[in-house]
Amino acid sequence: MPLLIRPAGPRDLEPIARFNAALAQETEGVRLDPERLSRGVLALLKDPQKGFYLLAEEEGEIVGQVMVTFEWSDWRDGVFYWIQSVYVRPDRRRQGVFRALYRRVEAMARERPGVCGLRLYVDRDNARAQQTYRSLGMAGANYDVMEVDFVINRHESYPTEEKS
């Protein structure tokens, strides 16, 4: 059965949160706070101004996802689609699931007036992912990501909120 690429809705909260938790554990070795994660996913699902998720579904099972958020570029007078929260179930990796998701995001971006390009960030040590992105036509940028994160301590699991 072919892959169905579809937009996510609130009913997809649980599988998206599960995939995001697995992604954080696999890529950063951290355990996400489930309540905070669910709130974050639901906030995006309910507010299209924040972004959107696309899901890859096969025989009624979700096998992959991407999240897209928006970044305004004053230099280009347009919006970049930032591809984030990329996750494909381990048993479906290297089988074209991400490629199908990426191609749908790319097509949507090209069709929407005012979108000036696609961006994503990738771990410097993840050569396999970098090769995948290059094979889709992406190229390295002349930027490093810098941050101050008020929620995540990279040396511990994500903190949980204090209960009063």
From TrEMBL:
Domain named N-acetyltransferase: residues: 3-161
One Gene Ontology molecular-function label: acyltransferase activity, transferring groups other than amino-acyl groups
Keywords: Acyltransferase, Transferase
Record-annotated membrane-spanning stretches: none
Protein name: GNAT family N-acetyltransferase
